[in-house]
Amino acid sequence: MMQDQVNEKSVALSVKAGKLTGRVLAKAMAAALRRMRNPKEKHGKQSIRSLARRGVSLQDIEITDGNIKSFERVARKYSVDFALKRDAANPGRWLVFFRAKDADALTAAFKEFSARALGHDQNRKPSLLARLAQFVEVAKATPNRVRNKEHGGHEH
After folding, report:
1. CA 95, 98, 99 angle in degrees (round to 5)?
2. Contact call for residues 40 and 78 (beta carbons, < 8 A)
3. Which of 10, 36, 113, 125 has a CB 3.0–4.6 Å from the CB of 74, allowing a cystine?
4. Are 110 and 59 in contact (CB under 8 A)?
5. Quick check: pTM over 0.85?
């Protein structure tokens, strides 16, 4: 009797079906094999190593420490693959590495990002404390009315 070599990797396959037939099982196994042969590439934020592993040239730009999260949101919206690395020479700066072929998408993302960053301060509503301070000034400017306790009315 001949024994096949046993591969140490194991695969778990889960199928949700009303009736599990041979045809359904065969389709599920074929789909699982396709996914194992062609794993999906990572998208969005990733390490520099995994970004460089794809064999394309990388470009980089600098952003400040406070803008990282807002940049990540915009970059995800435009499906830009990028990697962040803190600048060793300047601790408040970050380098954003991205694939050269994503340059057009990154340009569009940066236009939206800069428009948000610049327009955010101009279009912002005044804070509640600022509005409250204005109302306090208005209240101080109005003439005080003293209540006449004897008659229950106002005295001018």
Report:
1. 150
2. no
3. 113
4. no
5. no
